[in-house]
Amino acid sequence: MKAGRILATAWENLTQRKLRASLTTLGVVIGITAIIGLASLGEGFRLEIRERMQQGFELDILIVIPGSFTTGLGEFTPDEISRVRSVAGAAFTTALMTLPKARLSNEDSEPVNALTVAGVNISELAQMLPERLTPIEGVMPSPEENDTVVLGYKACFLNGTTRLVNVGENVTMQIGTPPLSINRTRRVAAILGKSGTSGITNFDYWAFIPTNMTIDVMQGEEAYNIILVKVSDVEQSEQVAQNIEAVFENPYFISILVPLAFMRQVDRILNIVQIFLMAVASISLLVAGIGIMNIMSVSVMERTREIGILKAIGAKSRMVLAMFLSEAVLIGILGGLIGTLTGYGLSFALSYVLSNFIQPQQSVTFGTSDTERMSIDPVFSFEWTIIAFIFSIIVCIIFGLYPARKASKLNPVDALRYE
Amino acid sequence: METVLKIQSIKKAYRIGKILVPALRDITFEVSEGEFLTIFGPSGSGKSTLLHLIGCLDRPDAGEILIEGVNVLRLSDDRLAELRLNKIGFVFQFFNLLPKISALRNVELPLAITGMPEKESIERAKEMLALMGLETRMHHRPSEISGGEQQRVAMARALINNPKIVLADEPTGNLDTKTGWEIVQLMKKLNREKKQTFIVVTHDPHIAETADRIVYLKDGLIETIKEATRSN
Predict the structure, then answer these.
(1) Strands A135-138 vs A182-192: parallel, antiparallel or unpaired
(2) pLDDT beyond 50 at A205
(3) A107 shares a domain with A215
(4) Which site among A304, A313, A327 would you substitute to test the B interface, given the most B Cβ atoms closer than 10 Å to its Cβ?
(5) Is residue A197 domain-shared with residue A271, that is, in the same domain?
(6) How many domains is chain A partitioned into structurally?
(7) Is there a contact between B58 and A306 if contact means CB atoms under 8 Å apart?
(8) Of A306, A319, A411, which has the smallest distance from its Cβ to B98's Cβ?
(9) At residue A367, does pLDDT exceed 50?
(10) Cα separation values, B170 from B174, B192, B195, Å
């Protein structure tokens, strides 16, 4: 019998037992729905996390510090910085000097929220992180304007409405503990926009002062303690980090934060979580498979006589096998198609619920309400759809194979006698 | 006339629980092309078993079956299926039509199995049903037509592939006398016109006697083989 005819016959047989066929198919639909739903939602979740991480960590920026991240001791010499600048793969390099024990206060002697005071070449930093260093008020000073300071957004506000300083006003900087402290008064040249990230490049609580001025207050010492390196190719981040290590006499003296490596690690974890979710979803498909096996075994028993007749009039075992397997395959195709659609539906519904009803706790210290808001959009991958679809058919074939083989191996005489 | 079927010392036993029950002890006979043969005997004599063996639905424990000179016992199951498809037509006591498809589809089924294009096979099935006088019944399901009509549908199915041998297992056993007789007459007619060999199993002596030859079977052995005494 021709394949098309076998499929048509299988379809007829299924439609003759509508309730049974639909219930069996429903099992497959649920399995595929779970797989597609979780896969697309999981992918959306992964993208959301990746996006957030990209907001928090500029992926193309390597952060080099002396010592380790837990004990960030020591400093870089200008010579070391110039060696880092010439490293292969480093597109752009700038160095920062953070001032220890620096406190800022406004004209009314109220403390300003600048938690970190750093000496930078402000134009270099702005060039490297243009989005992070966009002033909402004032104008970015040139590196030569030594009497200026640039403040992060939250350094200027007590809360959303109460201001501590305005552009053009002076702030007093006290470095060290009195009576050995040094005081300098500087004009606020610009206030930066809200970073809105919880990453390392959140400058909301920072105050930037020109490098020269820092060297001045540090009594001539050029104590750079952060180097930012923008890589020319993000994918080469790890290689560039190695290159940077190589320019130091003692590579253990420094630590390099490679955001890409961190993200890859998170990606790996998300992958594992996703595989786990898919495995759980696959169980429901296996259950559906067992349902198919069960119902087909019953069907073979009921249709024993029919099988006997088919064999008596000349049908080969292969044909009987093909007929029953076709029924399983049709269930798989139908279940796969419907399951894909409902799976997409499910992921939309779930993403809607996650995005609108489950709000994360608002973080007071970092971030803003807009960035904390979850928005997971399901991502439909064509490959996943195909894989789920094929998986559905394969499961149906595997579980349909046993009853179909049983049918095909029936002895025609015994089958004809079966009542 | 040419021998179309040769049965050589075939034996067949069935195992019922632990006991081996012999159904056929030692059967030998030949059938010529175009012959109308009946196998007659009481129930349990092994008639149906013999017919199943001739029809390649089962294999004997010993002996040889030659259809057109080919020892069918040496053939694989697939080749036997081909043989059933192309050379043998079956008519059963309980018609054995597929209940969920129309008479036309039932008749067309063997052609579909051969892989014939549907248009052609349907056309031929219609012709065959017309030959059986069932033009008006072809779109009915088996349950919607009478027993006699069902048996004619079954005959149409048996004959659709133009087989060498038509085997009928108590074809009238489930029909009233009049209808049964009509079926036998139809078979006789086809036998005469198409020169197909008919082997009919029956326990009805009237039907047995319509044959060219009668094989009398008892307890798994051939009691006698009788030539027809009168022509029909």
Answers:
(1) antiparallel
(2) yes
(3) yes
(4) A313
(5) no
(6) 2
(7) no
(8) A306
(9) no
(10) 8, 20, 21
Q: Pull the structure tokens for residue A91.
A: 């597109």
Please tell me whether residues A35 and A174 are part of one structural domain.
no
A185-204 confidence digits (pLDDT tens): 889 999 988 876 555 667 88
Residues 86-115 of B with CB under 8 A from A: 86, 90, 92, 96-98, 100-101, 109-110, 112-115
Q: Which CATH superfamily is domain B34-56+77-227 in?
A: P-loop containing nucleotide triphosphate hydrolases (3.40.50.300)
Provide the edge-to-edge strand list for the sheet that holds B221-227: B88-91, B165-169, B197-202, B36-40, B213-218, B221-227
CA distance B110 to chain A (A): 6
Of the partner residues A309, A315, A413, the one whose CB lies closest to the CB of residue B96: A309
Return the residue in B12, B14, B58, B84 with the most chain A beta carbons within 10 A, the one to mutate for interface testing.
Answer: B84
Residue from A323, A317, A408 nearest A5 by CA:
A323
Name the residue range of residue A26's domain. 3-56+263-417
Q: Is residue A72 part of a domain?
A: no
CA proximity to B160, closest of B214, B229, B92, B106: B106
* N residues, chain B: 232
Residues A284 and A162 in one domain: no
Is the Cβ pair A305, B85 closer than 8 Å?
no
CB contacts, 8 Å: B101 with chain A: 12
User: Do residues A285 and A216 share a domain?
Assistant: no
Residue A159, in any domain of the structure: yes
Q: Across residues A52-74, what is the average pLDDT? A: 76
* Residue B167 with chain A: CB contacts under 8 Å: none
| Secondary structure of residue B64 in the 3-state scheme | strand
- Specify if A245 maps to a domain: no
Give the ipTM: 0.92
Mark whether A156 and A269 lie in a shared domain.
no
Range with lowest mean pLDDT among A62-71, A298-307, B149-158:
A62-71
